[in-house]
Amino acid sequence: MRDTARAFAVTTAALALGLSACSAGGTADGRPVQQAVPDAGEKTGKTGKPAGPVTLKYWTFSPPADALKRAITAFEQANPGIEVELRTFDEAGYRERLPEALDGDEALDVVGLHIPTMTRAVANRLRPVEDWKDKVSGDWVEGLDEGAVEQTGKAAKDGKLYSVPMGSSGGAVMYYNAALLSELGESFPETAADLESIVMRVKKEIPDLRPVVFSGEPRRQEELLFTVASQTHPTLSDDLLAGDKPWNGPEMVSALTAYRSLFDRGVLAKSGLALKGDRPAELFRDGKALFLVDGSGRSPMLSASYRKTGKISVKKVGAGPFPTILPGAEHAVRSTPEVGLAVPKGSKHVAEAAALIEFLTAGDGVSGWAGDLAMIPSREDFRPASSVFAASESKDGYAAIEELVRDGDSLNVPDEVFLKRAEGDAILDVAHGRTTAKKAADLLQKEWSRGQ
Question: How far apart are CA 325 and CA 320, in angstroms?
Fold first, then answer.
């Protein structure tokens, strides 16, 4: 499907620096239940299951606790001999806390990882998936997105799979005020020329409305640049990070030129580069912008539940790919497996941990946590129920994002050290018109060579 080995190895190295184990019956979707197989040496009763109740200690940073609790409740109901003790952390604190816990006395059974940035740091404290996946019957890992599983394996230095991906994300994509776009009699823009036409019309007819909002932070602009690049050269980002193509090659110069054209033509306002953090999404949610450019992580705006909790004023939210820039280009995003579930070496309940992981990644538990739409689930046959979406435009938009993320050919993961040292400033200088695409590309190649 995708050959991401070289780039994932380079990128994660740089980042390192900086079931359903059910009782008799079937699952809710009619698939046969998966039965946990106890570890050799585990104390078991006559049924072959562990004697007495088992409590699994599960630490993670994502998905949100409320969503996970719904899935865990369903798991516990299907497995009355197993209880799950969930503890969630903010991502930044978790990166420091998890390695300490795995080295200490915490008897953890299941841990969540941010696959690109955490795998190498803790892989030596984890059991390879190959060692425990068969403790749940059936080829359940085969039902997960092949690309996500492959990328997860490449996150480790030895190429082994140490966690099972729950879901993936990608970007940049474009969200839109569907009701207002319909009132204008416009369709979702497929090309930059289509978007430019709508932007010029909004500036003239609704001067108080921002046509397009986006974050000017270097990471978000890097994401946009390589979304544009992926439309004509799908593996460019991976090739650059692997050292297989120079940063000042024709592909990168072309991508930077196309990227700058968005600002030179007024499709994206240079003043918008001053927006940071949640401010662009806030403006969009308040109905003060027609389009929002952001990652797929903003997809909860497409859900019905978000309308109740997210203080969203926009009547209908739709989504789609960022418009193509150059002739012959195709819609694309870079994508990355986000959250993986792993079994630490210190777990005393490996079979039960495997059952929980199967339930949350390939089983009925997916429907419990995936309703907020924050990730594209790795389970290939999973589709959110229609009731999850706030409008038909939302459902169609999510389907479009899902297709883009599953087909992503490059990883949506920069070299954080290089981004902070040189890449971020160079990209923003191009957007502001302070330098040319060629000069920026030459600078990037020089700084990349110096850093290596």
Answer: 15
Give the DSSP letter string of 100-123.
Answer: HHHHTT---SEEEEEHHHHHHHHG
Distance CA 301, CA 319 (A): 10
pTM recorded for the entire structure: 0.87
Instruction: Kindly give the confidence (pLDDT) of every residue in the chain, 452 residues in length, as a single tens digit, with 9 standing for 90 and above.
Output: 444 444 444 444 444 434 333 333 333 333 433 445 455 444 433 334 444 589 999 999 999 999 999 999 999 999 999 999 999 999 989 999 999 999 988 899 999 999 999 999 999 999 999 999 999 988 999 999 999 999 999 999 999 999 999 999 999 999 999 999 999 999 999 999 999 999 999 999 999 999 999 999 999 999 999 999 999 999 999 999 999 999 999 999 999 999 999 999 999 999 999 999 999 999 999 999 999 999 999 999 999 988 888 789 999 999 999 999 999 999 999 999 999 999 999 999 999 999 999 999 999 999 999 988 999 999 999 999 999 999 999 999 999 999 999 999 999 999 999 999 999 999 999 999 999 999 999 999 999 999 87
Q: What are the boundaries of each domain within the chain? A: 5-168+337-382, 173-332+410-451
What's the CA gap between 422 and 48, in Å, rounded? 59
Tell the residue number behind the tokens 């190959």, with chain if given.
130
Domain 5-168+337-382 belongs in CATH node 3.40.190.10: yes
Class of 173-332+410-451 per CATH?
Answer: alpha beta
